[in-house]
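Q: What would this chain look like folded?
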Amino acid sequence: MRRRINRKTIGLFMFLALFSLSLTPQLSWAEAVINVVNSDGPGEGFNDVSAPDADSANGGNDGATLGEQRLKAFQYAADIWGKLVDSAVPIEIDAQMDELMCSDTSAVLGAAGPWSVHRDFTHP
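A: My prediction, written as structure tokens:
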């Protein structure tokens, strides 16, 4: 069941990123570097070293392991958002692929929130 949840999470994340890009024209002034920081432990999530399914590379994701494919999918979506966000400061996103609640009638596909927010500071 865990692999199914993670695939759905990746699929939903990619769909939302691509859908938002198709609705919003690229802003000529917007450009931000968004880096996905792997916060998973050894052998889990983005560090899962199991072989990917044979048909999973059909979308152009050439990751050698399931974890590498997950990380590439997240970074691809972050790159799309980077074209829509204006920031001179690189944005880092701590990300994990953890098992979330799932039942026969409902499921949590993803969760997010900030660690910190900074604003109105003077630049050195």
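The first strand starts at residue 34 and ends at 38.
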